[in-house]
Structures are given as C-alpha cells and as structure tokens.
Design goal:
By secondary structure, the chain is of the alpha+beta class. It is built from eight helices and 18 strands. The strands form seven sheets. Strands 6, 7, 10, 11 and 16 form a five-stranded mixed sheet that branches. A three-stranded antiparallel sheet has the order 2-15-12, with no helix packed on it. Strands 1-5 form a two-stranded antiparallel ribbon. Helix 2 packs antiparallel against helix 5 and helix 7 packs across helix 8. The longest helix is centred in the last third of the chain and has 18 residues. The chain is globular, with a radius of gyration of 22 Å. The two termini are 24 Å apart.
C-alpha cells in the first residue's frame, strides 16, 4: 500500500465565450474543470509525488492514456532503450492510417521534438506524401511516454511550467441574473488546459520509437464506428489470436479470445504459460 499514490488533477475556472466573465456552477461558486492531461505532470509536482519518487531513487515515470487497452504498461524494451539513450523524454509512435486520423503528429519544430495536435495540422500538410506514396507526416502519437523524474521536476517548477491552452467547449452553468441553470446547445465557454506533449520540446534529449499499431494501439473514443468498443474488441481478440498462433495453438476462425494481463503481458509470456495440449471450441478467456 505504501507504494500506491493517489493524487488529484488540478482544475481551472472557465470564461463565458461572449463576455469573458467567469462562469459559475452555483450561487457564489466558480465553475471549475480539469486542467487537461498536461495537468497530470504538474499534479505530480504539486502533490509531492515527484519529491517522494526522487527520495526513493525512482528515475523514470511511464505515462499512457487510459483509453488504449493494448498499451504495454512499463514495456521493458522501451524502458531499456530510453535508459540506454539517456533520454529525458521517450515517445512511442504508430503510422497514421489516413491523413485525417485524429492523432497528434511527432515532428521537429525549431529543432525540437514536438507533437502537433491533429486539429492544428493544416489539411494540405496532412495530405502531403513522399516519393514512395507514404504520408510525409506519418508519426502518429498514441500518447505513450517515458519521462525522466529529474526532467519532470525541472519543467513543473517555477516559471518553466507547462503553458495553458484555450479550448472552446459547451458548458452548463449557473446564471446569476436569472438565478437558473443554463444548458447551452452550442459552445459557450473558454476552458484552460495543459497538454502533456508540451513537455517534449522542453527536453534536451529525446527518443521516438515506432511500434506496430495492431500490437499497441486501439483507442476507445466513440460509441459506434471507428475507435469504438467494437473496433477495440476486435483488436484485443486479434492480438490474443496472434499470441495463440505464436504458441502453436489453433482456434476456430472468428473465435472471441481474451488474455488477462494477470495471465500474460506479451506473446512470450503467453507461450511459456499456456497448456500446449489445450483444444479450443468457442470463446475463451485466459486468466
């Protein structure tokens, strides 16, 4: 239990898009919203966790977004390359599937490793291709990073902290004039957010590692269609089928398969543990 830490992400007030006034969520109470995924890093510092990690001799922090069930948590090969290169920040990348895919792009900006948000990448630039026909800006970010603890300490203290960005959002709020709750139909507020990828250009040494999408990236963002539970489920069962095949076992085509992370974290662990005499007839959960 002493090695488990809970810390709270910071919040920021929001402004009325039309007037610039602070929004309320009740009489005399400001409307507050989470300060973006970059707030994870500042919260590590503000909560004292970074100081505790430093005292324990912990040198690196692994970060990923929770909506990707294929992520390899604490991937030892990724960590090993990060340490070998003495990188302050290391990031995994996957090749974009299409110019319009909604993932950030790793690129050099002013000689510094940076991530350009998909919404900031002009359509004509996103469409650019090299002589082989591949996308010029293909290095998509699945938001999987390793950070050196001393680097995080440096960028989250003092004036060198992460910048704030403005985001237009639809926000329900309390109107002090009518004294009623308002539920707008369109964007009505400016929120302040920090982005975790703003840490990358602050690093003096960085590393990017390309990985296979089908092995490590299945984002869950929509109820239906692309990046939905259906595509994530297909990716998870597809990965399990690959592990089964690598172990020399067969399953009926289309059989739903799932491997608990408590059972195995990769194909090698699965092959070393699974019963080679097992015969599968239907949906199977390895746990």
């Amino acid at each position: 239990i002493s090695d488990v830490f809970f810390f709270q992400q910071g919040t920021m007030p929001s402004l009325d898009l039309a007037t610039g006034r602070l929004l309320l969520d009740g009489p005399g109470s400001l409307f507050l919203s989470p300060n973006g995924h970059g707030g994870t890093l500042t919260a590590l510092s503000d909560s004292g966790v970074l100081e505790d990690l430093t005292g324990r001799g912990v040198r690196h922090v692994f970060y990923f977004q929770v909506d990707n069930p294929l992520v390899r948590v604490g991937d030892p090969k990724f960590l090993g390359r990060h340490v070998e290169r003495a990188a302050e920040v290391s990031s995994k990348i996957v090749r974009k599937q299409s110019p319009g895919e909604k993932v950030g792009i790793l690129a050099l900006v002013g000689g510094r490793c940076s991530i350009i948000e998909y919404s900031d990448l002009p359509a004509d630039v996103a469409e650019e291709r090299d002589p082989s026909g591949s996308l010029t800006f293909h290095a998509g970010s699945p938001a999987i990073h390793l950070f050196a603890v001393d680097f995080l300490t440096r960028i989250t203290t003092g004036a060198s902290g992460l910048p704030l960005h403005l985001a237009k959002k639809k926000v329900s709020y309390f109107d002090p004039v009518s004294k009623t709750a308002v539920n707008p139909d369109e964007e009505n507020a400016l929120k302040f957010e920090r982005f975790i990828f703003d840490a990358l250009p602050l690093a003096d040494r960085w590393l990017a590692v390309e990985v296979e999408r089908e092995d490590e990236f299945a984002p869950l963002k929509n109820a239906t269609g692309p990046d939905s539970w259906a595509t994530v489920h297909k990716a998870m069962t597809g990965q399990a089928a690959k592990w089964l095949d690598a172990a020399g076992l067969d399953a009926p085509p289309g059989t739903p398969l799932e491997v608990s992370p408590l059972y195995a974290l990769d194909a090698d662990q699965f092959a070393a543990k699974v019963d080679k005499n097992i015969v599968l007839f239907g949906p199977t959960y390895f746990r």
